[in-house]
Amino acid sequence: MSRASSSRILKDSNGDMGEHLRNHIHLTNCIHLKNHMHNNNNNNKQSPVLSDRSLLMRDLVVLQRSRSLRDPSASPNLKEDHKDSREGRRRSVDQNVVKKSGLRWSGSSPIVNFGTSKVTPSDEKFDRSSRKSYRFEDVNEVCSVDSVKSGSKDRVSKVNEAIVKTLSDQLNEVGGDSDDLVSYNVRPRSNGHRRRKFRGTRRAGRGVNVRDDVGNESEMYIASNSVPRGEKYKGEGGGRDRGQNMSGAVPRNGCVPFNWSSIHNRGKSFLDIAGWSLSCGMSDSKGRKGENDMLMLSDSSFSNHETLPLLVDSADNEEWVHDYSGELGICADNLLKNDQKDLEFCKKSSRKNTRWHQSFTQKHAPRTFHDLLGQNLVVQALSNAVAKRRVGLLYVFHGPNGTGKTSCARIFARALNCHSTEQSKPCGLCSSCVSYDDGKNKYIQEMGPVKKFDFENLVDKMIDRRHQQQRQHLTFIFDDCDTMSTDCWNALSKLVDRAPRRVVFVLVCSSLDVLPHIIVSRCQKFFFPKLKDVDIIDSLQRIALKEEIDIDNDALKLVASRSDGSLRDAEMTLEQLSLLGTRISLPLVQEMVGLISDEKLVDLLDLALSADTVNTVKNLRIIMETGLEPLALMSQLATVITDILAGSYDFTKDQRKRKFFRRHPLSKEDMEKLKQALKTLSESEKQLRVSNDKLTWLTAALLQLAPDKQYLLPHSSSADTSFNHTPVTDSDPSNGVVARTRRDGSSKQDLSFIKRPSVEDIWLTVIENVRVNGLREFLYKEGKIFSISIGSAPTVQLIFMSPIAKSTAENFKDHILRAFEVVLGSPVTLEFRTESKKDTKNVGLSNGERYHESGRRSEIIEVAESESPMTRVRRKHLEASQNQNQNQSIVKGKVSLAQVIKQAEGNTWSKHKAVLIANKLEQENLRLEPRSRSLICWKVSRNTRRKLSRLKMRTRWIRLHSLLKLVSCGKRLSTKSPPR
Ligand SMILES: Nc1ncnc2c1ncn2[C@@H]1O[C@H](COP(=O)(O)OP(=O)(O)OP(=O)(O)O)[C@@H](O)[C@H]1O
Ligand SMILES: [Zn+2]
């Protein structure tokens, strides 16, 4: 098709047919256009449309290849496309393409075009009514083949003729009219193939490939033209025209495939390059937003005589040329070489990658101030500025990503130029709004991240333009303006002083800090805060409804909360989830975003709350192996507890395997325990935040959740350090030792026993935590814990059955240490010893005898260091006297003197036994004293010993006060020579 003819067609389509054509997109559009072309041909003999039928057919082929055409009804995007059909813009770009390349216009693409908004009746409805009603309207307005067939509107009849024939019929008719078509037909390609082709093209014979892909050329234009209204950097006045103007050479236009934009943010620099040095309109700085999937072709409206010489000199940009790599680089290289064929090919390739995808952010970008969520102050100020015509020169929109800054800049620009007198601006209906939506508004210029910008040239031209058009605001939107160079800023600041009226610069960036003060101080600054979850959820719900996504409310909430106030992030996540094609539930979202499911959380909580130490640690380890952050897990645990307390957690899972959560509803007592657990977690969270060893703290915190058996976190609070508890056995008489103590160390009676994991539990957990397999078995068979003291300096004594076993264990000290540290949650001092006869006899552990078999545990009761031994004994004494009836068995383990006294007082032991035990205690403590600061250090002088033995010899009935005397003697001694 000749340029003249294509221009003619386009002129027609923009003229009489324009309004009508805008009602159709995709197949209908294309066919309809064809239909019009027929009509046109009949009516206007100068238009050689029919003679170019083959080209039309080629376009149809291209369209047929698109997903939406293969199955129009199955593609939600198609609906969307139809809903949001703004083909005017597309067409305008097509015009451009046609003008420049001699290729002819082709109809549609599955990419939703946000370009035109006001052509169809439905769109009018939208513009006047709420967004919601618009969307529903739009759904009804879907211009699939079917809907067109069944419709009764005028245009349907015009289209009918075209759609009676199937595409293949039409193709057959065309047959081999076109080489392009043939070449297309014989080369069906997958996407991957296309990309290979693309690469190959650059490296090998480009020309040939370009010819081979002629079928795709028009396809590319479709995509290129289907730029959503929301696209940034549409390159008005720039793009190809600028390129021509500046270089006087072949235009350097190109499109960047949308999936390239996903390599953003780094891609920014490339897109910058491509967008500017290629004179390809504005680049996509926001690939990560999914906003701008490709570089835009320049507006047809910016024909040479209208072109603003906005863009940097290509020579200036040479430095950028090799900043990028991969396919982007290939495309850009080609473009930079001014190779028209490559240019077309690049465009084609890019369209291949973009044509079937339009992100939710594009589809659902806000179009009016009313659509802008959560930015009420900004909206109010800007719409008032427009209404009162109090418009400044420089604006800066700053704030976190995805909060609507760029969208707002666009809306503002449109509102500034909107001709509407009645409605709130932008109306979406006036010629200015329409031309913007069509991509033809020359007064609104959007630029991506640029380093350089020819402001000098700009201002001259602006003045020219201003002479031409007085009533419009020439608005420049600089997205990601922080990329601008110092020179650029200087130029802008100079420009500010002499800028003509009705020129507006909107600078968009994430932080004011990145802008020079000289600029910032001249700007009206608008901050865009993060969006509230509730706004995000609301928006997501609407999108889900429109896109027919089946998603649970809980899942939506999670998506919103994970998006950190960025609606774009939320929309992207929703889009990603929608690809799963199933009902989107909370666990699904959790899995997708890398959280663990509530069920697993409750399982873990259940184990922790039911004091299943080993499995808690085991389960925790499994969860952590998934790479979850300890803090994230802790906060998830806290959330799930809160949900359970609030009654909003649904225990749907089989509860039988659970212990703590077995009963439903939970008893008051259980709820109380949960509250306590929440408190513990929130306290531990502080520690977790500052700790380098977060996992250890998390483990310790979890082990603390057990309401009956508690580990105390070392150093977790001053209260705890002042009164440290050893893991003590519970009140089971067989365990031999009972600790009745109060946390606050007061002498008040406290009958509630603090049950703690037994030493055996700890040992097994530690073994569990040992990372060396063989070592685990060895430890299980050969070793055991002789004593543990938990306090400011936790010390553990391990006892082994033989010296060989001991030295073997010592070789693996590091591993064992680590395991202890994980379980006890703090650094541990480890000591190794060999089992002696005495140990066996006194501690009640014989070779091969396991703790659980003996039913006895070796224990040391640790007493707070802050408390003097005397006070301690008195307190214990008092406590003991109040628990006289406590029946205890003979103690074979190591006990505190306090307990000896207590037992003696309680008449459960004979005095003789008390003395024997006191003796034993003396020996043990003497032996242990150097090893642990936190033990009662009861050093006895020879003198005292003599006294003691005399006591024993004199009478078998040792009186309590004698024992106390002994204690005080011990105290004196220990004061004199404090333990290490
Ligand atoms: N306040 C908002 N109201 C409605 N939609 C929004 C809002 N903020 C973001 N969005 C959605 O996110 C998309 C991207 O928003 P936009 O580009 O305007 O954000 P931005 O603040 O400019 O982000 P960035 O700082 O990354 O450039 C929009 O197309 C829209 O779908
Ligand atoms: Zn308007």
TrEMBL record:
Protein name: Protein STICHEL-like 4
Gene transcribed to yield this protein: LOC104724826
Family recorded in the similarity comment: Belongs to the DnaX/STICHEL family.
Signal sequence, start to end: none
SMART domains referenced in this protein's UniProt entry, alphabetically: AAA
Family annotation (InterPro entries): AAA+_ATPase, DNA_pol3_clamp-load_cplx_C, DNA_pol_III_gamma-3, DNA_pol_III_sug/sutau_N, DNA_Rep/Repair_Clamp_Loader, DnaA_N-like_STI, HLD_clamp_pol_III_gamma_tau, P-loop_NTPase
Amino acid composition bias (Polar residues), ranges on this chain: 106-120, 722-734
Ranges of residues in domain AAA+ ATPase: 391-531
Disordered: region residues: 66-131, 228-250, 722-744
Annotated NCBIfam families: dnaX_nterm
Phylogenetic classification of the source organism: Eukaryota, Viridiplantae, Streptophyta, Embryophyta, Tracheophyta
Ranges of compositional bias, category Basic and acidic residues: 78-93, 121-131, 229-243
Pfam families: DNA_pol3_delta2, DNA_pol3_gamma3, DnaA_N-like_STI
PANTHER family per record: PROTEIN STICHEL-LIKE 4, REPLICATION FACTOR C / DNA POLYMERASE III GAMMA-TAU SUBUNIT
Alphabetical keyword list: ATP-binding, Coiled coil, Metal-binding, Nucleotide-binding, Zinc
